[in-house]
Amino acid sequence: MSQHIGIVGCSGEGAALCYRTLCLEGEQFWGRYGHPEISMHTHSFADYMAAIERHDWRGVGEIMLSSANKLKKAGSEFLICPDNTIHQALPFIQSRLPLPWLHIAEVVAEAALGRGFRCLGLLGTRWLVESDVYPQALAAHGLEFVRPDAIEQEEINRIIFEELVCGVFQPQAIAYHQRVISRMEKAGCDAVVLGCTEIPLIMNDSNSPLPTLDSTRLLARAALKRAHE
After folding, report:
1. Which of 135, 136, 147, 229 has the most crowded Cβ, counting Cβ within 10 A?
2. What is the rounded distance in angstroms from the CA atom of residue 89 to the CA atom of residue 158?
3. Measured between alpha carbons, how far is 93 from 76 in angstroms, rounded to an integer?
4. Which fold has domain 5-103+218-228?
């Protein structure tokens, strides 16, 4: 027996990477080709972006809640969301969630602590890095963090929304992330959070100046463990 995982999707690339990881890595628990039952619901990414761009986080939360309710009806037993940015809206709907929710930032913080990291560089959309989503989770585990500066935030945000969410992966984007991570290393970071679920599509331990904490795959692996237990 295993628990049925519900995915509250937002952007296509991030949700697809999470789903693919669940399917491919499930065999460690369920044998060859095995994985738990998985359902995913995604509202239009345009609906999410319209609410985000007008800073309507309550509205973002209602979209997430709509997916959560549909996933419960589909038989899901707990929920994950492979999108860091929209976790800002979670407090607005927490009390109305129909199922338990595995929080992406808490999963990453626990992984960082388990690997002995103390200070993390935080990469993601400008809404994410300016929010309390990661600061709260990291502080609860005694971890410090470094944000990108204003110029870095804008360029990373541009890369995410003009390239990565559209399935465009450019060498220049990799090089830019490498420069930002190198600066974070000089600022005292011993690892970097890939806090946009699309960044792992271009950055990983093989091309990053610092060890990476891949939020997308870490969430998927935590969900597999929970589903198995």
Report:
1. 147
2. 22
3. 18
4. Rossmann fold (3.40.50)
| % of the chain residues with pLDDT over 70 | 100
Distance in angstroms (rounded) separating the CA atoms of residues 76 and 39: 7
Q: Which CATH number fits domain 105-214: 2.30.38.10, 3.30.70.60, 3.20.20.150, 3.40.50.1860?
A: 3.40.50.1860
pLDDT at residue 123 in the model: 98
Residue 1's pLDDT is 79
- The helix/strand/coil state of 116 is coil
What pLDDT band is residue 35 in, cutting at 50, 70 and 90?
very high
Q: Rounded to 5 degrees, what are φ and ψ at 45?
A: -60, -30
Look-up of token digits 């319209």: 50
